[in-house]
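Our working data are protein records whose layout never changes between entries. The record below serves as our worked example for the rest of this section:
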Amino acid sequence: MSKRTHTTEVGSIACTDLSDLGAGKEGWLVNDPNLLCALDMHTIALANRYQTVIINWADPEGLVAKIRPELSPIASEYITAIEWLVFEEMRALAVGTSRGYFLVYDLKGDLVHRQLIHPGRILKLRVRGSRRDLTQDTAEEEVCVVMPGVLARFDGSEIQKMLQRWFQDSNSNFWDQKPKQRDSEDLENSYERLPHQLWNVSKYGPCADAAITGLMPPPLMEVQSSQRYFCAVTIGEDSVISAFRLSEDRSRSLVGAILSKVVPATFSTISSLSKMIWRSEQSPKKSEPKPQSFARASPLTCLKDHPRKGERLTLSPSGSLAAITDSLGRILLLDTQALVVVRLWKVFCELPYISLFCMFLFFFGSFNEKLHFI
């Protein structure tokens, strides 16, 4: 009687170009803390600190593209996060850097977009669809950028429009005998900045991981308006779990509004006078892009339990549940609507297996989002 196997081979990522990422060493795919991975239906992206390799694991030829972003050697910039962007038939790879830059590449390895989110390290890029309830078939894609104490949100429709323009321009220039090669500076000037929301969620300390779970109702005494409110959950060393109500409103106090108008005008006047007095023949240097101002983030709740520290957060497909791993080897199951921990597990295994357990938990619970555990 032949031995039964419970695994099926679906593809291979064996490729000579993976040697630059450390392939060939025992445990290189699991034990390297600098190795990042993003998996798509037929493609996998692997990245270390300075380059990214895209492989079609269902194709025998394997390699699709090899990306080496233009990183700043002065600031010791490196790759910190990667994630796939999939909109119907369009696919692109999002890359986050240690300086807070959000980069988008197509499958050929060409730079599509480059934008500064906020000065600081991008910890994670989250892409997911959100629905108001289970009766709606239409979903809204969103891209969340997680940084220490900072959250940014992109509307998926804006990124989809940008990718459509890019692929249309690429198809129109396909028959061009001398295609124009554009560097990152020309690319930043060619397209406008993608609109996004930016929030400061560092009230309880810098976060190690975070996620926007979905829409939430406005405060009780808030004037009804067309703006939306989002719920965000953060974890970190100072606070195991923190929740915030994120508003799209970027209104500030009267003093802040006056300073935002007076201070830039004063500096522009001083700089123009200095240029008139001290004329220089040197070419002017390009100024660094400035991030936009923060929108309102109101704290909702906080769980502090020293020495417990939040380490990793896994969100369910609908955003109604979140599994949080802590430094004591436990898994906390959080109801993101009621902001209550509904279950607590003690797991005696390593961190990669805990992540697989969280994924299996949400896969099992995706059949019924109002899940009741026995």
About this structure: Residues 131-138, 252-263, 365-374 have pLDDT under 50 and may be disordered. The two ends are 39 Å apart (CA to CA).
